[in-house]
Each structure stands twice: as C-alpha cells, then as structure tokens.
Design a protein that fits this description.
alpha+beta; 19% strand; GMP Synthetase, Chain A, domain 3; 123 residues
Length: 123
C-alpha cells in the first residue's frame, strides 16, 4: 500500500469529492525517505482549493490521522501546505505538525467527527 493510496480516498470536508479528485493531494506531493532502520520520513504537501481556505487545518488533520492509522511501518510524518497556496500557510504548517495541538484538536468532539467523516472509507 502506497502513501498516495492511503490519502487519495480522504474526502473534502465541504465537498462530496475526494482530496485527490480536487487535486488537493497529488502523487507528486508525497515523498518517502528512509531515515533509519525500517523507519521512514513521510512528507506530504497539499494544495488547498482556495488561498484563504478555512478548512486547510482540518484537511491537514485528516491527512495526519489517516496516515497514523494506516501506515504499516514506523514513520515520522510532516505535512505542509504547498508553498504560496494559502494566506496563513506558516501558521497552519506549525499547527498540523505540532503533536500537542493535533491531540487537542482530536479531543474536540465536533472536530473529531468531521475528521472521521473525511477519513472513513465509503462503504
């Protein structure tokens, strides 16, 4: 199972399409490097549909949760917004790569439910 295969089915929080169909995630935005014995660095760059997308943080969260659950190997995960594609990309990059902030976000029932709806495979 490739990293692209895992994330291609994540649904957009607002639209019926997947992130792949909306070209939010692409094969080219996924990088996997070996950093140790059986440990890999997985870097994802995604492009929000609009530069002021309010859901960019949520999309980053969905990518992180889905990969944490589905990657079959030990990994470090770095998720970034493609450079120059969002008005607050620096803040968002910090937020989605901060373990404590991610954990806090997932404790919010509303947010958690939104993430689950996006990452759950359609039946």
């Amino acid at each position: 199972v490739s990293v692209s295969d895992i994330i291609r089915s994540i649904r957009d929080p607002e639209k019926p399409q997947t992130l792949e169909e909306l070209e939010v995630v692409t094969e080219g935005g996924v990088e996997v490097q070996e950093i140790g014995e059986e440990e890999f660095l997985v870097t994802i760059r995604f492009t929000p549909t609009v530069p002021h997308c309010s859901l960019a943080t949520l999309i980053g969260l969905c990518l992180r949760i889905k990969l944490q659950r589905c990657l079959p190997f030990r990994h470090k995960l770095e998720i970034y917004i493609s450079e120059g594609t969002h008005s607050t990309e620096e803040d968002i990059n910090k937020q989605i790569n901060d373990k404590e902030r991610v954990a806090a976000a997932m404790e919010n029932p509303t947010l958690r439910e939104m993430v689950e709806q996006c990452v759950t495979e359609p039946e």
